[in-house]
Every structure is written in C-alpha cells, then in structure tokens.
Design a protein that fits this description.
The chain is of the alpha/beta class. The chain is built from 9 helices and 7 strands; from the N terminus they run E-H-E-H-E-H-E-H-E-H-H-E-H-H-H-E. The protein has a single domain, classed as NAD(P)-binding Rossmann-like Domain (Rossmann fold).
Length: 248
Amino acid sequence: MRRTALVTGASDGIGQETARELAGSGWDVAIHYNCNRAGAELTARGVTAAGGRSALLQADLTDPAAVMRLMAAYDAAFGRMDALINNAGIVDRAARVEEMTPERLTRMFAVNLTAPFLLAGHAARRMSTRHGGAGGVIVNVSSVAARLGSAGQYVDYAASKAGLDALTKGLADEVAAEGVRVVSVRPGIIDTAIHAKGGEPDRAIRLADRIPMRRPGTVHEIARTILWLLSEDASYITGTTIDVSGGR
C-alpha cells in the first residue's frame, strides 16, 4: 500500500521538490497551495510522472476555518494520513522590530505558527494510536533564523520559526508512545523564490560568503533530508531539529 502525505506550500520551492521526491519513493501526495494554482499543477504533474497519485488542495492558512476545510478535503481525497510536512511559510520585507505593524505580525504568526499548530493537531488525531491511527510522522520546516534571530531583517519570521521548534519538541513528547514521530528541519540560506517574495531576489547568492560552505543550499538537499526523516532509517528520531545549513 502506498503511503499518503500532505505537503503544505507545495506549489514551488522546498514543498514542490519534497512532493516530487515523496512520489518517487512510493508516496501519494496532497499538494496544498494558496494562490499559485499553476505551480501546484506543475507539482502534481511531477508527482504523476514519478508514479504517485496527487490531489490539489487550496487553502489560505491565515484563516483557521480554511485549515478545517483543507483537512476535510484531504480526508475526502485519501482517507488516511501517514505524514504531514508543515512547509508553508512566509516572509515580509526586511524591517526592524520597531517598524513592524500589528497587521504584519498577525499574518506572519498565522501562517508560520498558528496554521502548523492546527495542522499538527489534526494530523495527530489521524495518526495517533490513541485515536485509532496507525502512526505517522510530522515534519516541521523551520529555519536557522530561529536561532540566529535575523536582526534588522525578519525577527518576526525568526520568532515564528522558533515557536515551530518548540511545537516540534512539545508535540513529539506528547505522542512519542502513540506511534507518531515529530521532527523539525532547519534550512539555512536556500536558493528559492521566498527571497524574491521578501524583496531580495538575489539574497541567497549575495549572502553566500556568510555560509561556511560558501554556497546556498538547494531545495533538493532539503527535500532529501525530509524524505530520510520519514523513512524507517530515522525510526528512532523524534523531538529534535536537524540543521541543513552548510554549517551556518
């Protein structure tokens, strides 16, 4: 039986590559997106080409009601859940904390922290043996910003990702005896479109000299790490965070 996974933010970048890698390793994939339908369809074609079944699920993660609808659509498409990859995340324009508005902070924490909390709770109810599930894995995609702070740029983003790391540890301890593993991946500077969304399309290359390995990472490197964490090779790993950052 093929396993099933929900990947949030799968219309480009890390999420898109993770969906493709999962499909090539025997998984069917629910592809979440918000606005980028064309990107999600491209991901779906990649999943199909790799031998997997896909479903496109649209949801604005700033809306808790939309999260509920997303899970209902997932259940209708697949009926069981073996993995959740909490990948969706946003940044904003570089700013100091003193310049950040309540509206910016509300949106940042809604997408980067509240939605992953809600989705992880839904996943735990579907996976946990306490609720009749067969077990599973939750992977939270964090950031090394969680421990670096991102002063003068994205302290709000860093804080939201630090909260995600706390969720990883706390939830992992809650469900460790119920067949569910919870882990976090902290990418460093990865060459994706998220930098352009924050107004700095050349950021990954520009900051390469700050990375001990002197290059940004790739989405493939993050996706392969996630795939390994989902595998039986990582069956004794939970409640921890793995940096994939070139030494940064």
